[in-house]
Fold this protein.
Amino acid sequence: MGRPPCCDKSNVKRGLWTAEEDAKILAYVSNHGIGNWTLVPKKAGLNRCGKSCRLRWTNYLRPDLKHDNFTPQEEELIINLHKAIGSRWSLIARQLPGRTDNDVKNYWNTKLRKKLYKMGIDPVTHKPFSQILSDYGNIRGISNNTGNDFASFNKNFNSNLTSKPEQPSSSVLTGPSSSNVILTPPIEQVQENSFTNNSRSWELLPQFHVTNHDILQPHLINVVSSSCSSSSSSSTTVTQLNSPQSYTCQQSQTPITHSSPSLWSEFLLSDPGMSLDFQQQQQEQDSHGALSSTSTQNDISHDKFTGGNEDFGPYDHGIINGNQTNSHVDAYSSSASSFVAGILDKDREMRSQFPQLLDPSFDY
DNA sequence: AAAAACTTCAACCGCCGAGGA
DNA sequence: TTCCTCGGCGGTTGAAGTTTT
């Protein structure tokens, strides 16, 4: 019944690869090409699982891979694509020649996520924290009654700084479930108090801007959060931008809207701008050795957050002061902006057609 | 100079859909 | 039709490297 197992997992080498093992894979692939990976260890004389061999090849040994640093253009594209499609790393990586999904994922987790936090932008929703707060204030009608909440926030925030957060990714989505008390400080207050030079505290922030699943209404979330994608990515192969998404990672039952591509890959493959523009930018950079407009035009002060040493790509315009609404869209590359603008248009359309979505008691 | 804290990233894990036996 | 593996994916881990104290 079925096929034999690919390897005896208890009897294969694990851990880092040696140069010798790399050479064996390279020699095998150059002679036989890529085929059945389960046969590779045996034929190449390796005591490794076939799956491990495939991973080593695709993530490290492939000749077309880049091993140098990410360029500002690549950063910008990753951020734009993450905003559009969430943590579909393989799809994002396909728009970045020479990069693997693992590369992109690692770069996002180690660099870009922190950058966005430092800019006061939630890397899950890609909205400025200030906008999330103001949106929430509008919805809950608490804008004139925040004093107690801030005091409560400060108390909780200080106590959280001294203890390790529990699974930050999930806390973004669920948070303390027992209370409807909102621990959402004004972003300026957060930054001045604790976030400027404390990287760990950035990781804590999501606990405060989303403390309960009903705080952020789904219509505010134009894209599926990265934290949700893991559990839903495989079983929910179609993700709709325009579908009301539960912020608690429940599977959406919303029917497909045909005004947009039914698959993200379709969008990425069909959008002539998203990747082509990028590749053109890459070529221009290669020929001129200069940064794109990202770092030259967008040279507004980010000293407030970073000391001015970092390039924040598409988010450089109009966000940092907290007065931004959707103006950051204007700063996107032209290729991405059409798509994102479409999302925002749909969002507005949906709000006008379904005002009940603005009701905080509305439950998906 | 040494220890502690922090960051990076290669590799692993577990899940899923497709398809072979 | 059922069981199983393969290949692919995203999330997580932990060793190695780097920076700070």
Observations:
- Residues 334-353 of chain A form the longest helix (20 residues).
- Residues 142-266, 288-312, 316-344, 354-364 of chain A have pLDDT under 50 and may be disordered.
- Residues 1-6, 15-16, 36-38, 50-51, 54, 58, 87-90, 101-102, 105, 109, 169, 226, 229-231, 233-234 of chain A lie near DNA strand C (CB under 10 Å from a C1').
